[in-house]
Structures are given as C-alpha cells and as structure tokens.
Amino acid sequence: MPGGSQGTDLRGSLSTLTTPLQVVWGEDDQILPAQHANGLPDSIALTTFPKTGHMPHMEKAAEVNELIGKLVG
C-alpha cells in the first residue's frame, strides 16, 4: 500500500477477461476506498453501496446476493 493506495493495478488484466464480472464496493470503505474502482474497463459492472464499508457482502447481503443472482442467471 505505497502512499496509502493499492500498489497493484489489475485493470489491464481485467479488460482481457471474457467472463461476466461484477465489482461490489462500499462507498465508505476505509480499507480500500471506493475511488480505487475508478477507471475499470467498461465491460465490468460496478455497483457501489452508500453507507457501506469494507464488507458489502455482509452489510448489504440481500442486495449483493441479488446482484450475484442476476450475474449468474
């Protein structure tokens, strides 16, 4: 975490994937700020949850489960 930021940028690798991707982020994440999702490839769906921290899968479980259900169909 050099300079308090994520040290590895995977955006280039993500753009080559062919599987559907959904990134879920809490807008109040104090570990990995939601701004780190800026600049993701257009092929990746991004959902941010307000008033949610680092664990949206627990804090917004029903909403995250719904997103997963839509993604896997």
Describe this structure in words.
- With 73 residues, the protein is of the alpha+beta class.
- It is 27% helix and 16% strand.
- The chain has a two-stranded parallel sheet with strand order 1-2.
- The longest helix is centred in the last third of the chain and has 12 residues.
- The model has no long low-confidence stretch (mean pLDDT 89).
Overall pLDDT, averaged?
89
Q: What fraction of the residues are assigned to beta strands by DSSP?
A: 15-25%
Give me the secondary-structure category.
alpha+beta
Helix content: 25-40%
Low-confidence stretches are: none
Radius of gyration: 13 Å
First-last Cα distance? 36 Å
| Main sheet properties | 2 strands, parallel
Cross-sheet strand order for the largest sheet: 1-2
Total E-strand runs? 2
Number of helices: 3
Secondary-structure element sequence? HEEHH
Shape descriptor = flat
Please summarize what this structure is.
The protein is of the alpha+beta class and 73 residues long. It has helices at residues 11-14, 56-59, 61-72; strands spanning 21-26, 44-49. Strands 1-2 form a two-stranded parallel ribbon.
Give the secondary structure arrangement, pairings included.
Layout: H1 11-14, E1 21-26, E2 44-49, H2 56-59, H3 61-72
Parallel strand pairs: 1-2
